[in-house]
Amino acid sequence: MLTPQVYFDSFKMKSLLKYFVLLFCLHFNDGSQSFRCDYTYNPIVRGWFKHIVVPANWYDARLRCALEGAVLASPTSNKMRTEITKFINVSGNEEACTEIFTGIHATFAKGAYISVEGIPLSKIPQFWAPNEPDNKEDKESCLTLNSNGDLADVSCDTTRPFICYRAVDSKKRINECGTIDPEYRLDARTNSCYKFHTVARNYSRAFFTCYAEGGHLAVINSDTEATVLKELFARYPGGHMLGNFWKDVAFVGIHDWGERWDFRSIHGKTLVETGYGTFSGGEPNNFTPGEQCGAIYRSGKLDDLWCDRPAPFICEKDPDYPDVCRAETDE
Ligand SMILES: *[C@@H]1O[C@H](CO)[C@@H](O)[C@H](O)[C@H]1NC(C)=O
Ligand SMILES: *[C@@H]1O[C@H](CO)[C@@H](O)[C@H](O)[C@H]1NC(C)=O
Ligand SMILES: [Ca+2]
Ligand SMILES: [Ca+2]
Ligand SMILES: [Ca+2]
Fold first, then answer.
1. What pTM, to 2 d.p., does this model score?
2. Which atom belonging to ligand 2 lies closest to the Cα atom of 203?
3. What is the rounded distance in angstroms from the CA atom of residue 193 to the CA atom of residue 105?
4. In this structure, which residue's CA is closest to atom 6 in ligand 2?
């Protein structure tokens, strides 16, 4: 690759115009070859891998990768199979942890196996473990890969470690919020980034979603930040949200941690320490059958809300976390 130093040495011979063209190209590649640093770039498959060692069921594994901006990795080619298998061998020691979930599944229709990217099983190199596939008791619709590179069908509700994969995509750029997700926007008043989720989820799922995106449920640290969130909420009228749920309240990062009425931020501080504790009139009211999770009304004021019922929610993200890494490519 042409470094700026090398370039300056040959500058005399080039026109100013070419210099700017080169600068533009370097800058463009910079965006296209960058991704969050918790992923490792693999030049052989021209993509990024992350090994998630805490076992999850297949549905959570798929969602986690998707929310991180990747896909649940599948051995869709011989190259992918070899590289994923190497990854298992390097990272897994225990016998039980050397089998991972792949993105190959038949959760839409029994027996109709496709990868999460939509590649049918018939186009994928198939090496099966002994006595597999057996669709035991007609309950196995997700495929695992072991450290020999062999597949097996297992129940999607069992848990396995897994690998997320992101192919290099020159069209997607890392934005000012340090993510490829264009819905995160920086607010200069707080120097934080925010995303309003109109797809309603319960508190646990909402927390999971913000976490996977590299953020957390919004923690309101000042009156100013409450105003920022109030303005954000105003951009999403109820008519823009699909589904049957209450559209004037959105989950944020406060919770009673199982201690009724003792609301704290999800980062462990009291609301006073956090910097904002203004509840709406009559709230918190612990409305039947009990409200232990925190939310804001369209007014920007706080409410206690049912944890298990879906609601829209707001994620907050530090523009510098997770770090963004540039791939060592020769382009
Ligand atoms: C991974 O390890 C297994 C045995 O532990 C071995 O059979 C297999 O060839 C290894 N795969 C790679 C890609 O190194
Ligand atoms: C939250 O939603 C997920 C996904 O729909 C569901 O699996 C989980 O049981 C729900 N949790 C609670 C506490 O309701
Ligand atoms: Ca099986
Ligand atoms: Ca904040
Ligand atoms: Ca309430």
1. 0.86
2. 1
3. 35
4. 205
